[in-house]
Every structure is written in C-alpha cells, then in structure tokens.
Amino acid sequence: MIVDNFMPHGMCYLWQPGVLGLHVVSDALITLAYFCISFTLAYFVHKRKDLQFHWIFICFAVFIVACGGTHLLEVWVVWHPTYWLSGSVKAATALASVVTAIYLVKLVPQAMQLPSPSALRVSNAELQREIAERKRAESDIRRLNEQLEERVAERTRELEAANRVLQQTQLQAMQNERLGALGEMASGIAHDINNSLSPAALYSRLLLEQNEHLSPEARDYLADIQRSVQDVVHTVTRLRDFYRARETQSVAAPVQLNRVVKQVVDLTRARWHDVAHERGIVIHLEMSLEADLPQVLGVESEIRDALMNLILNAVDAMPEGGTLAIRSYTVEPGQVPARVRVEVCDTGIGMTEETRRKCLEPFFTTKGERGTGLGLAMVYGMVQRHRADIEIDSAPGKGATVSLIFPGAAATHAPADQHGAPSAPVPSLPILVVDDDPRILKSLRRILEADGHRVTVADGGQAGIDAFIAARRRGEPFALVILDLGMPYVDGRKAAASIKAASPVTPIVLVTGWGHGMRVESDLPAHVDRLLSKPPDMEQLRKAIVELTAARGNLKPEALGG
Fold this sequence. Notes:
This protein is α/β, with parallel strands linked by helices. It has 15 helices and twelve strands. The radius of gyration is 50 Å and the shape is elongated.
C-alpha cells in the first residue's frame, strides 16, 4: 500500500471508518458542487452572448473546476498515495486562482462604472415614456392602415369581380378558338379525305352495278368498302361539326343493333385480339345479344363509331388483359316503343368518381399525349342526337360499364340492300365534268359513261370554261355541267358564274369535299343549281341529273320516278 515511500492518507485517520467516511463524503460532495457550479456558469455564458465581462465568469468556472479536482484527489489519496498528482492539481488550482484574482482586480474599476439601480429606474421610466409615445404613434398608424385596408379591400373586390368576368370571357374565347381551330382543321381534312375516297366509292359502286357475275363474297367485300367509305365520311364530318351547333345532317333509319355490334367487334378485332397477343396479354370476349332485338331509329355509322370508341376505350383500360363483355337486351319488354340497351363492360383499372363525372367533357383525357379527349365526347354527342341515354358505372380497380339506351323504332321491315341492283337507266346526255384531280375526273367519267352519258372532262376551272364555250360554238352544248369547288386560279364559283353568263339555262351541279358543311351553313354558291358532297352518292347524282335536265326539256318529268 506504500508507493514511493508514501503511505495512503487513510493511515493518518488510522483507518477509522467514522473519520474516513466524514472526509470522503465531504470531499465528494464539495467536488460535485464545484463541478455543478462550473458547468452552470459555462452554460450561462454560452447562452448569454450579450453578457458583459463574460470572460471573468469563464475564469471563475476554471478556478472552481480546479478546486473540485483537488477535493476529488483528496478522496483518491485516502487509499492511493499519489501525492505528486495531488500536488500538481493543487498547483494548477493555485495558478487558476491567481489569474482569476488578477482579472477580478482589473475588473473592479470597470464594474464600478455600471449604472446603479436608481439610475436604471430613471432610464426605464424614460424608456417607458418613449414606448408609450411610440404606441400612440403606432395606434394612429394602425388606424390609418385599417382605413386604407378597407379601401383597398373594397377596390380589390371590385377588381376581383372584373377579373372573374375577364377570366370567363378569356376562357370562353380560348375554348371558341380551340374549337374553331379544330373545326378549320377538320374541314380541311374532310375535304382532302372526301376527294381521296371518291374514286373508291365510285368504282366499288360501278362494280356492284355493272358486274352481274360477282360472287356473293366479292359483293360483300365491295359492300364493306362502301360502308367503310361512308363511315369515314361521317367521322370526319362529325369531327368538323363538333365545334358548332349541329343541325340534322343524316337521315335516320331503322338500325339493327346486333348487326352493328358484330360489325364493330370484327372491325376492332385487331386491337383486342391481335395487338393484345403481340404484347403477351389476353382479352377474352363475351357477347350476349338478345335474339329478335327491336330495331332503333338512328344513323348506323354514328352508332357504329360510338360503339367502336367504347370498345377501344375498354381495351385501353385493360393493359394487363381481362374480359371484354358486350350485351344487348330490351330494357322493358312489352313497352311501346321499346327501349334497347347496349352495354360495353371491361374488367380494367376503372375510374375515380371525379374522372367518371368529367369523362364526357370535350378534351378531357386520362391517356396523356396519346388521348385527344374527343372519343367519349363524340359518343355523348351521338347519344344526344339520337335522343338516347348514357350511363357509366365504374370504380377504381373494378372496371367500367358504359350503357347506351336507345328508344326503339316502330316495327318495320329491314332496309333493302342499297347496292343490290342498278338504278333505272338515265337517257344519254352530253355532260361536262370539271375538276383539278385527275383521279376524280377518271372515276366520274367512267361511271357516267357506264350510265350511257357522253362525258367530256376538263382539268381546272379555266379549262372547263373554255370547253363549255367551245362546245356551244360548235353547236354541241352540254346538257349539264359538274363542277368541283376548290380549284387553283379559277375555282368552282368563278367557273359557274362564267358558264351561267354564257348559258343561264344550263344546270350546274357542284360536287365538293366541303359540300356537307356548306349545306348546313346554307352557303350554296350563286349560279349553282345543286350541291353534292364528295364522295358523290350515285343515286343522288343521278336524281340531280334527271331533275335538273327535266326542267330544260331534255328529260320528261315521268323520268323522275325511275
């Protein structure tokens, strides 16, 4: 127990427990108190950055920590005679105490200059007066601010009301601009597509009428071509007409919905079957069509397009595959007239309530850049035009069911095949056809010549005027002129005016890709006796030839019935 010839301090206490405990406990408590005081002073200085003479507090903290260290070693040397260590700590404590004393002596003159409590009270009173004056000034400013705010609020309400009106006007203008741009774009597309479809429509009709040896399968193919051409015409027409109020543009007829459903399933087979299989997914088709389903009165191509939109939307809603179900049935059997319901169901991702409410709005889409937002809007337009109803039942993750409910048509026989037999022959007439598209000139010439007419074609408006005048000079006037509207340099209007100037009694038929929209807008050009749309319907063209030439005496009125 003796180190370096020293003996533990406890031997001085003769190892008596009472004396040992007294000294050890006292030194330990003093050590703990000194350390707490030091750490408290250090914390106080750390938090009060604005404290004057903070360094003296730091000196006291170091001094007190050193004192606590000496008392801690007093406990240690009771059992361990490390007196050199104890003495070193006491020396450090002495150094800290001397430094603290020196700084404290130097601090006293500065501390004496600190204001007394009475001086502080006077300063506080002066400060209170300044604060009161400032509060009065602030109160006056606050009152003025409140008055100003009331005026600003009133003016703001007026501006907000004016801004709301302006925003509504801007939104309406933007919507009109968007719809107008869509209408102009669709009108141009309709014109180009109608021109391109004209040869296909005319040649398929010519084959059906002139070739009696066609097989039933070939006739079906040609009938499908005719139907597809008319579908395209109706589609681009509805797209163009979407931006304006629609007038009656198609003649409603009894429609067999089950037949239309089967056609649409065949037309969309590539999407729900072939493309799906290429992507490694399977879409099962389930069809439940009521036998002897009552017919509905409507435009078949519009209903077909609407069902096609619904089926394609259902396929898009099942990116991982699923079941596509199509059902048709009578809503209330025995009711007159009956109501017919067609449902298109999918087991896809479904719609939220917000999406379900907005899905019929124009330009609303959840497909991002892939969607136009017009599909369901066009379906809704078709529903309104047919005085039908649409119901949408959907929930997220539970698929969707879209139902179209049509009023049934009165009992009638199925419409006869429009392409089964050729029309009654029309007497041979000299006809001038003017167009800048060589394909249309060729197709119109062939089908009119097949009807027995003597056809002369002219490439462009000026060439048509020259051909007409030359024929009159030869004494071989044309019985009828067929003009295109949009031609370079000399359009159909100018050509019609020149022809009427030379021969006011010569009937003029204007056949144009814009004809459908011009009829709706009552924009029949001057000097034109009849307006037909492209691709031209041969029955309408033949009827126009008969009616217009009959007025001149080239045909007898009895021919109107044929």
